[in-house]
Amino acid sequence: MLRLRTKLILGLTFLFAVTLAISMQGIYRIYQLDRDARLILQQNLHSIVYCNNMLQALETRPVPLKTLQENLVLQQRNVTEHGEDAATANATDMAKKLQADPANEELIRSLRHDVLQVAIINQEAIARKSAIASKTASNAILALSVFTLLSLAVYIIFIFSFPQIISRPVGMLATGIRQIAEKNYRTRIDLRPGDEFGQLAAGINNMAEKLYTYENSNIEQIKAEKTRIETIINLMHDGVIGFDEKRNILFMNTVAKRLCGQVKAPGNTVLDAIIHHPAQQQLTISHSGQPYTFVKEVMRVENNRDVIGEVIVLRDISAIQELAAAKTKFIATASHELKTPIASMQMSLGLLADSRTGPLQPAQRELVSSLEEDVDRILKISSEILDATDEQLHTI
Fold first, then answer.
1. Alpha-carbon distances, residue 51 vs 42, 61, 99 (angstroms)
2. Would you say 76 and 95 are in contact if contact means Cβ atoms under 8 Å apart?
3. Most buried in the list 26, 121, 229, 372, measured by CB within 10 Å?
4. What is the model's pLDDT at position 174?
5. 345-351 contacts: CB < 8 A, separation 24 or more?
6. Beta partners for 222?
7. Which residues, at least 6 apart from 345, have a Cβ–Cβ distance to it below 8 Å?
8. CA atoms within 13 A on the CB side of 310
9. pLDDT for 212-258, tens place per residue?
10. Mean pLDDT rounded to a whole number for the chain
11. Does the CA dihedral 83-84-89-91 come out positive or negative?
């Protein structure tokens, strides 16, 4: 499996190779045309120029033999076409004869004929080579057109196929990550490992598997904790009612359900009384013909200082009140019953202090006086306890 960097390098190398091939093909075809044009100029056009110079010299009287000889020498060096060498040789022989007899018109006409023959041969060669050059140009245009069309076809295929190497894995990765972000941890990205995308997909799949395992373990743990908390709340002797931030009821334990009855029933006066009753105040609710006393406590549920709910706890103080009432009655009864023996003790001490019962020694008088003070103190304490218990009984 090729890595992403290798794929990009191969793709760019392919584009460079195609571009280079088109450029080299164009350069080669242009070189062929330039070569043909150069051959025409170097081989044939120069011969025509030499022939024209010689023809002009032959039209002049007296004939400039030097000019004629110079152009003839140049023509001898530029013989390139078939039949041109014989015509040039004939012209050379005529030129030699003309040097011996410059005024001979017959020699001038023969030399002109030979020079024209050389010119005609080169003109025909130019026409022939022009046709070849034109054909070469047509072939070059055709070859470049075909090569360009093929290159464009390859380019189009490459343009539509090569981006898939990048876009397809990226799209699959984006879809997989979006599914995992939506907590669909069973999603797996199906990319073959080997390149960078495959390695990234393998890492994401591994992460999703761990998240799935973690979530399942957390869900089970949360379910277990929820069951435990619900059990604890339902076993409480106090009523518990939970609300969300919009004051909708989330849960109620068994005690609260027993007190409120059908929560969703219209006109549930018990629930309305609980909700609107002031916090930390006693609330009496009758159930099955028996009154129960509760103290309402309100606890806010916060998350990062944002209130997300509320819990009302109804603490049952009925048993505490009954115990307090029984204790108060017992103390009142005990205090009341203590008054009779205390009164009897006061009477006995009074008799002892009376002289008619007999004289007392000074030490005995001090003891009697001390006992009277203690009895008075006990009587006072009993009276105060009795008064306090009477007030508590009235309060209960």
1. 14, 18, 18
2. no
3. 121
4. 85
5. 345/371, 345/375, 346/372, 346/375, 346/376, 346/379, 349/375
6. none
7. 371, 375
8. 11
9. 887 777 667 777 777 787 787 777 778 888 888 887 887 788 888 87
10. 77
11. positive
φ, ψ dihedrals at 323, nearest 5°: -65, -40
pLDDT over threshold 60, residue 262: no
Residues 134 and 4: beta-carbon distance below 8 Å: no
- List the one residue out of 295, 314, 296, 319 whose CA is nearest residue 254: 314
- DSSP, collapsed to helix, strand or coil, labels residue 268 as coil
Q: What is the pLDDT of residues 65-85, one digit of tens each?
A: 888 889 988 888 888 888 888
Cα–Cα dist 39/18, whole Å: 32
- Judged by DSSP in three states, 359 sits in coil
Report the C-alpha gap between 76 and 92 in whole angstroms: 9
Residue type, 206: N
Pick the closest to residue 326 from 389, 239, 234, 380 (CA basis).
389
Q: How confident is the model at residue 116 (pLDDT cuts 50, 70, 90)?
A: very high
Cβ neighbors of 45 (< 8 A, separation 6 or more) are 122, 126
pLDDT of residue 347: 72
The label of the residue with tokens 């209960």 reads 396
Cα 92 off chain centre by = 92
Phi-psi label, residue 288: left if phi above 0, alpha if psi -120 to 50, beta otherwise: left
Measuring CA to CA, which residue among 155, 169, 160, 161 is closest to residue 14? 155
> Which amino acid appears at position 363 of this protein?
A
CA distance 386 to 339: 10
Q: Which of 116, 109, 140, 108 is nearest to 36 (CA)?
A: 140
Strand-pair category, 282-287 with 290-303: antiparallel
Report the C-alpha gap between 293 and 237 in whole angstroms: 12
282 DSSP β-pair partners: 295
Mean pLDDT of 36-48: 70
Residue 396 has pLDDT above 70, yes or no: no
Contact residues for 170 (Cβ-Cβ < 8 A; gap 6+)? 197
Of 151 and 76, more confident: 76
155: exposed, middle or buried (Cβ count in 10 Å: 0-12, 13-18, 19+): middle
